[in-house]
């Protein structure tokens, strides 16, 4: 999240076109989500259950598969036509234009990130989300997110970004070489880790907050290893994800479930975009146990006015009712990491 509102006319002076390697990944829907974690205080449960005018143009099958067809129109879910330099990285996407081949709507990448929200391009209409979503659109909160805000999560049992990343990578082993989408990525704390890991052919840092994505860009703009990697910054609504059905290998949602206006709609969308055998990993805060200290219960009651916290049982019920299987969870205090697969 950014300290000040970033200029929408940032110029990228170091463009590098990169043609991504295309890794064929076959995900077996019967593969169990791994749970090979050392004993570290966690408890685990496993259940097997610039706007550019775009005109149609000829593109090679390889280009269609690796670039254009990854993104879809959030209105009709048709793959977008892309016009611009090849390559899946921030500079190349910034210099490209995208247009829906069905509804003819164009989508802009002029603000560093590619805006694939339904309201992209509106001039008079402005859609305001619930307070839990609007809070993170603030430039101040965006700036503070990695400068003290998230460090406070440790008080609730979060093990810290490095350990959380390692835990998520264990679940994502079956998706290595595929496409990973980091939904509600915030300032890109985990998106950057996934991108530089080299484990994925492409990584999409996706958030509804414009300022979070600008903050993410501020973190990566001077790091050539990330800015030219297979990373895209995308603004989108988690309940209307801009990808074709069955096109994504892995979805990560760090400390996000409690912030979503409709968790059920979001997880249903995640199920839709995952390939068969694809993996979803999320973390969130659990609702405080009635036996917890009074001060913790008081803090939770205050937070519940803004966020939605759940019990372990409610999260499992929600995830499995949205059609995902092989549910697994690990818990420490109020922290939970959960994972499931697309059938």
Automatic annotation (TrEMBL):
Q: What is its main location?
A: plastid
Listed InterPro entries:
Methyltransf_11, SAM-dependent_MTases_sf
Q: Which residues form the Methyltransferase type domain?
A: 181-281
**What Pfam families does the entry give?**
Methyltransf_11
Gene Ontology terms, MF aspect: S-adenosylmethionine-dependent methyltransferase activity
One GO-annotated biological process of the protein: methylation
Alphabetical keyword list = Chloroplast, Methyltransferase, Plastid, Transferase, Transit peptide
Its annotated compartments are: Plastid, Chloroplast, Plastoglobule
Gene Ontology cellular component terms for the protein in this record: plastoglobule
Q: Which family does it belong to?
A: Belongs to the methyltransferase superfamily.
Record-given protein name: Methyltransferase type 11 domain-containing protein
Q: What is the lineage of its organism?
A: Eukaryota, Viridiplantae, Streptophyta, Embryophyta, Tracheophyta
